[in-house]
Amino acid sequence: MSNLVEKIEKLKKERNAVILAHNYQIGEVQDIADYTGDSLGLSVQAAQTKADVIVFCGVLFMAETAYILSPDKTVLLPEKNAGCPMADMITAADLQKLKDQHPDALVVTYVNSPAEVKALSDYCCTSGNAVELVSTLPKDRKIIFCPDQHLGSYVMQQTGREMILWPGYCPTHVRITSEDVEAAKNQHPGAVVLTHPECSSDVKRASDELLSTGQMIKYAENSDVKKFIIVTEQGILHTLRKKMPNKEFIGVSDKMICPNMKKIDLAKVAWSLEDMKHQITVPDEIRIKAKGSLDRMLEVLPKK
């Protein structure tokens, strides 16, 4: 492994590359990354660097978003078959048909979506800012929310806005039941339950806080609590334990594994840099429109 790490570091310098790793990646990949975090945050960080090459250790829609924000850089996805089942649950044709049925509706699209779908949207959102963004939208306009019905239903509950929800979901997050959460709480009394809003309503009701992965890290860092039950993909446990070795983080279940997020390893990162594969691009006519939906999201949210 040490030889692979040395090889990656050498190639990274030669290519003037930056390595990004989503919080759900395996630990050894997170450890060699320049930045770890949420998908959109990573793309924004990479755009601000002087790197010529972005190696995105994540899934396809994340690499697409990195290219949308940094078309002047070469974006590499070390595993070409690392996709997102939720993102694949909606196509541009699906969304266009829904828009035709509701021509006056605004379209809010979760970043976990294909570039072509972002391009047809009025706004993008993240799991961390979806509630805040929808709260800013005109109350006399219908809202189409896609592709995640569970994040969408949470936004509806928090804002009181009726929305037309696309019936997509994350297979990993919906695998967890409220019984799983209750069993973990019984086993670890006093632990605070941090849950991703992609989970089902029953699981959300059994939880203490509903947070994106980035928000989970900040919450745990700022909390006096020493023990947490984490209800999201288990890759984040590496991040949390590394940042806060004095606190205990328990994964709610061994079922919380995204197979696509586990397809990248150190060897694939090295091969990606060596062979400059697999390059991810987005055609300009799609990229420019998709960037517009991301830009509008940032425009309506208060600067922090």
Please provide a written account of the structure.
The protein has helices spanning 2-15, 27-32, 39-47, 60-69, 92-101, 115-119, 130-135, 149-159, 171-174, 178-187, 201-205, 213-222, 236-243, 266-275, 284-300; strands at 17-22, 35-37, 53-57, 74-76, 106-110, 123-125, 143-146, 164-165, 192-195, 209-210, 227-231, 248-251. With 304 residues, the chain is an alpha/beta fold. The chain folds into three domains: 2-82 and 261-282, Rossmann fold, CATH 3.40.50.10800; 87-169 and 286-300, Rossmann fold (3-Layer(aba) Sandwich), CATH 3.40.50.10800; 176-255, Rossmann fold (3-Layer(aba) Sandwich), CATH 3.40.50.10800. A four-stranded parallel sheet has the order 2-1-3-4, sandwiched between helices. Strand 7, helix 8 and strand 8 form a beta-alpha-beta unit.
